[in-house]
Amino acid sequence: MNNLARKEAIDQVPFASALDDEPGSRFKSVTEFLDHVETGVRDFVRQMLQGYAEDEFLRFIGAKPYERTPLRKDRRNGSRPRKLETRFGLIEDLRLPRGRKSATSYSTILGRYRRQDERINQIVSAMFLRGVSTRKVGKISHLLWGSDVSPAEVSRMNKSVKRELIRWLNRPLTEKFAYLIIDGAYFKVRRKRISREAALCAVGITEKGHREHLGFIQGHRESQKAWESLLTQLVRRGLDPKGILMVSSDGCPGITAAIRTVLPYSEHQRCLFHKMANLKAKSPKNEWPLIKARLDRIYYAPNLMEAKTQAEAFIHEYRTVLPALVECLQKDLDACLAHMSHPANRWKHIRTTNLIERSFKEVKRRVKVMEQFPTEESCIRILFTLLQAQNEVWEGRPIRHFGNYTN
């Protein structure tokens, strides 16, 4: 589109007539003025799109109207009507030139099947993934750009992230991670019937405190085979098994077995939050506040020696009174205190799976609107988008003082 054509398009936009009037003589309110501006913008966009489409068609066929030249590839055969949803609103009355041998595939701006600006897809996906239901997205889109987006269209737009998902799940892991936090969360997925299925996820932390969601698998139970599958995938993508100092997880037997198989050089830290929940279940309700205070002296002791001293005192006092509680405490005491062999400034970040639980909390907040996922693919898509967004938040923001070696 040449400069003269652009100038003519701008001159035809109905802004000029408003500027010719005296201030305040045409519009009675700011809303009325902005409505006029909105109409003018849409008209300007329509004329620009129309002009570019005409220009593209002439370049495509290689000849001007009625020009006789051996370079001509096609001849004009009328035009095709088109509507386009854009960030500026719904653009109507577009007339795309059509050739005798070709339709509208010549256009890089307006493809044959394109009906929406890519920015619209991004806006709709962002609204949906931040908790706006598919029906409410349609109402909001009508306010933003003047046309409704159906629930089916929302689902279709979200499918555009599939290629990015595959690339993200297979990206090479180039960072040298020292700690690994793994955990699973259950979500309702509709198949032949609604079932609760686990999403298994892993977060890595470097020596300097940089955090990153490394990957996840969905649709499994928390079995040894499933956890081995996730950890093996991470190793194949570049995770160094010998570089992982410690893996933090809950007490699921499948996790413990998978860690011994795939990451045999790493210590295993039992999540204290999950462990306290297990101990609480074996404690009398009215005595739990006192027992919890005694347990805190063990798990949050200033050093390993003090922790073991407090554990011996607790076992001696409650061995005969609450044997099930003592047995639960002794079962994996060493795994619960494994973090104490690492720098003290890292303890609160590696002794629980809270880092990954907070990410799952955001996912569950989003899922609460839906009640259940309609398909496994939709579950994977939302998990990917939210975990990737969390990585963007973490990028360039390491855990404070994590890299300092203090005891």
Can you tell me about this structure?
The chain is of the alpha/beta class and 407 residues long. It has a 5-stranded mixed sheet, with helices on both faces. It has a two-stranded antiparallel sheet with strand order 1-2. The radius of gyration is 31 Å and the shape is elongated.
What does the secondary structure layout of this molecule look like, with pairings?
Elements: H1 3-12, H2 15-20, H3 30-61, E1 76-86, E2 89-99, H4 118-129, H5 134-145, H6 151-158, H7 162-169, E3 177-190, E4 194-206, E5 211-220, H8 224-236, E6 246-249, H9 253-262, E7 267-270, H10 272-281, H11 288-299, H12 304-318, H13 323-331, H14 333-336, H15 347-350, H16 354-370, H17 376-394
Parallel strand pairs: 3-6, 6-7
Antiparallel strand pairs: 1-2, 3-4, 4-5
Q: Provide the succession of SSEs.
A: HHHEEHHHHEEEHEHEHHHHHHHH
How many helix segments? 17
The termini sit apart by 69 Å
Helix content: 40-55%
Radius of gyration: 31 Å
In short:
This protein is an alpha/beta fold and 407 residues long. The chain has 17 helices and 7 strands. Mean pLDDT is 80; it is low at 15-19.
What labels would you give this structure?
16% strand; 407 residues; 7 strands; alpha/beta; five-stranded mixed sheet
